[in-house]
Design brief:
- The chain has 456 residues and is of the alpha/beta class.
- It is built from 14 helices and 25 strands.
- The strands form 5 sheets. A 10-stranded mixed beta sheet has the order 11-10-12-13-9-16-17-18-19-20, sandwiched between helices.
- It starts with a strand and ends with a helix.
- Helix 6 runs parallel beside helix 7 (213-224).
- A hairpin with a 6-residue loop joins strand 5 and strand 6 (87-92).
- It has 3 domains: 2-106, Beta-Lactamase; 110-349, P-loop containing nucleotide triphosphate hydrolases (Rossmann fold, 3-Layer(aba) Sandwich); 358-454, Rossmann fold (3-Layer(aba) Sandwich).
- Pfam families: PTPase, Spore_III_AA.
- InterPro entries: AAA+_ATPase (IPR003593), P-loop_NTPase (IPR027417), PTPase_dom (IPR058670), Spore_III_AA_AAA+_ATPase (IPR045735).
- Residues 122-261 form the AAA+ ATPase domain.
- One of its GO terms (molecular function) is ATP binding.
Length: 456
């Protein structure tokens, strides 16, 4: 993973005696917050601990020094630093004077969503659940970049608190080509969500912290217009969402239903039961349990129905490390009660014929894929960069050869929109019995999935 935190731009806006200490700190790369409270010693907070920065207590002059070097505080008592993702929040006394500052370090982490990359390619709406501070905003920032840059979607971010793309009028580079709409007042977020759809023709809308009934209604309206949604909200798990009345409509809403005597007897339940009211606005839910362990509900409708029948089971847990090695633990539901847990590597756990973004072009009637020994792989690339293919194969540790002569190749790989127009190439491949594979988009991830499927 690649981390861009612009930490020096935050440190240089602090009082001088704090700058010296922080610049020399061995763990400054793991810093989460800096807390400055009037009359108290300054603190730095890490993930599981805190430290005092100095013996000297914070004075009015120290508070004033910092507030004059950041942007103007909003009605929500938040400010930022130009062209960074850092957030400065203030506390005020009864006279509205600032007496405390919480300086949260903002980081753009590239590669943080590797474990759920296949979910993005499914083009379904995704809701991310997690308590404050687990990194939901960092995750959707990276999702915005991947969708806009690598999947070439039209992405618009509704950035109410300016945490996703930074305080500056120029959006932070961490969101890639995605566009950002700022919200003047928090209460207007739902209006800006609808405005984005009506005025700017997005394929994907990204919303941080859906929290009110009006925002929930706007999200449902957007989903019904066929726009993919990626949003976050507070909560530890799916059960919390079901039991939260303002947010329950995100997953279809819950209602009491009275059954007839015969139906209740047939189901073996009471006459009054809970059922889902409508189709969920979000088809996939990701629970951020820990920074390196996420629970996935790939079929939210099914998960909710099972929970309401008191037969709820976790569907999938994905665990990963900073080295991008991760496992998936899948629980398959059988008759709503029995479950089977399987663990495997991420790529091997993907279903070969569902939501795949590559095609076996010259023999579509065959369900069994051709496999080639990786040591004998000779590729004819069509409309693909040789350097891109080399990067993928070197990372996977495969031996391979690239050739410009079709007859010498034992596999042809190219971009779908170009391959489908070249009948001469496909006929030549058929004559020489060379399999032709196409990918929908040029990305390292899709090429990796394809090579994993055709090689052994």
């Amino acid at each position: 993973m690649l981390i861009n935190d612009d930490l020096e731009k935050l440190i240089e806006n602090l009082p001088f005696f704090l700058q010296t200490y922080l610049n020399q700190h061995t763990d400054k790369d793991q810093l989460i917050e800096i807390v400055l409270d009037l009359g108290r010693r300054p603190e730095v907070r890490f993930l599981n601990r805190f430290e005092y920065l100095a013996q000297k207590a914070i004075s009015w002059q120290d508070i004033d020094y910092t507030t004059k070097r950041v942007s103007k505080f909003s009605n929500e008592n938040r400010a930022g630093i130009e062209r960074t993702l850092h957030r400065i929040s203030c506390m005020r006394n009864r006279q509205f004077l600032i007496i405390g500052l919480t300086c949260r370090v903002g980081r753009a982490i590239f590669g943080t969503i590797s474990a759920v990359r296949d979910l993005l390619e499914s083009e379904q709406s995704i809701l991310i659940l997690g308590k404050p501070g687990v990194g939901k905003t960092t995750i959707i920032r990276e999702i915005a970049r991947v969708l806009a840059d690598e999947m070439e979607k039209r992405v618009i971010i509704i950035d109410t608190s300016n945490e996703i793309a930074g305080e500056s009028d120029i959006a932070h580079s961490g969101i890639g080509r995605a566009r950002r709409m700022q919200v003047a007042e928090t209460e207007l977020q739902h209006q800006v969500m609808i405005e984005a759809v009506e005025n700017h023709m997005p394929e994907v809308i990204i919303i941080d912290e859906i929290g009110t009934e009006l925002e929930v209604l706007a999200a449902r309206t957007i989903a019904e217009k066929g726009v993919q949604l990626v949003g976050t909200t507070h909560g530890n798990c799916l059960q919390n969402l079901i039991k939260n009345p303002p947010l329950a409509d995100l997953i279809g809403g819950i209602q009491y239903v009275t059954l007839s005597d015969d139906e209740a007897k047939r189901r073996g339940t009471q006459k009054s039961i809970l059922e889902r009211k409508a189709y969920p606005a979000f088809e996939i839910i990701i629970e951020i349990n820990e920074q390196n362990s996420w629970t996935i509900h790939e079929n939210v409708k099914h998960s909710i129905d099972l929970f309401l029948r008191e037969s709820f089971q976790i569907s999938q847990v994905r665990q990963f490390s900073l080295h991008e090695k991760f496992n998936i633990k899948t629980i398959k539901l059988q008759n709503y009660s029995n479950s089977l847990i399987k663990s495997s590597s991420y790529l091997n756990n993907l279903t070969p014929f569902s939501n795949k973004n590559w095609t076996f072009m010259n023999q579509p009637q065959k369900r069994k894929l051709l496999t080639i020994q990786s040591s004998n792989l000779i590729i004819y690339p069509y409309s693909l960069s040789n350097n891109l293919l080399k990067e993928v194969f070197f990372k996977m540790g495969f031996n391979f050869m690239l050739t410009n002569e079709i007859k010498k190749a034992n596999v042809i790989i190219g971009l779908h929109k170009h391959l489908r127009k070249n009948l001469k190439l496909k006929n030549l491949a058929k004559q020489n019995k060379i399999p032709v594979y196409s990918i929908r988009q040029v990305s390292i991830y899709q090429i990796t999935k394809l090579i994993q499927s055709i090689c052994f």
